[in-house]
Amino acid sequence: xxxxxxxxxxxxxxxxxxxxxxxxxxxxxxxxxxxxxxxxxxxxxxxxxxxxxxxxxxxxxxxxxxxxxxxxxxxxxxxxxxxxxxxxxxxxxxxxxxxxxxxxxxxxxxxxxxxxxxxxxxxxxxxxxxxxxxxxxxxxxxxxxxxxxxxxxx
Length: 154
Prior knowledge:
The chain has helices at 2-13, 24-36, 39-57, 65-75, 78-92, 95-105, 108-134, 136-149. By secondary structure, the chain is mainly alpha-helical.
């Protein structure tokens, strides 16, 4: 529960201020790209994947699954974060680059990339979970050693 709360808080409070002055056409190009990338669906899937992973790691949270999903959808949804993502992409890419990337996502290959992104992210997350699980004894040992160095207090 604490780790999910930490992820939520870090994500919410690490959103950069919308300070950079960017033209309206540049922002529109950024939003067009994000829509073409189906970012709303990608974000919804990411929320589900994060919660599912957390529930696998902490099954005692299962009774709270609906609350976790509702909270994440309320605060981490495309509707709530659209302007932030538009700003982030506009800050990272020129207007011309955004139009080029959008053109790619309008192709058959680009749409395949959009469709497969959630699957690839989920597979990557599962590999990460597996690697951590396989090496958990080492991590526990390192943490125990540090705890002993600190006198058993944390």
